[in-house]
Amino acid sequence: MTDKPGYGEADASYQAAGGIEGIRRLVDDFYQVMDTWPDAERIRRMHPADLSPARDKLSCFLSGWLGGPRLFQETYGSISIPAFHARWPIDTADAEAWLGCMQQAIARQPWSPAFKDYLLRQLAVPAQRVVQAAQARQAAQQ
């Protein structure tokens, strides 16, 4: 038996990702996929041409979300991912494209298969919440 925390406990997920360096590699791969994968064309158009700020913000967010330093909050302040994304008409296909980019980026990482599976399952939750927030905002505007 081990005393090592499981993914989602303390900073175990952050450590499994390789800390901020591993997270930045994931984010770089994620946006590289988004730039080149035809299925991601619509979500890529939701981003500015220069992805540098988006790369930093996603890396900082994932750091805290995975149990590491709360770099996003320290640098940019607090954020509600669903509320922030509600300004775009994001639907289920967009969330699936986003997750597809993330799945391909995760596959490129030198992580254990168990952590890769765990992370993709966890990322599906905020992806679905973003869709729900966008749908709620659209319904409120009608």
From TrEMBL:
Q: Which UniProt keywords apply?
A: Heme, Iron, Metal-binding, Transport
Q: What GO molecular function annotations does the UniProt record carry, in alphabetical order? A: heme binding; metal ion binding; oxygen binding; oxygen carrier activity
The domain of life is Bacteria
TM region(s), chain numbering = none
Keyword Cell cycle recorded = no
Q: Does the keyword Transport apply?
A: yes
SUPFAM superfamilies given for it? Answer: Globin-like (SSF46458)
**Do you know which PANTHER family this protein is assigned to?**
TWO-ON-TWO HEMOGLOBIN-3
Q: Which family does it belong to?
A: Belongs to the truncated hemoglobin family. Group II subfamily.
Name this protein carries in UniProt: Hemoglobin
**Species for this entry:** Halopseudomonas salegens
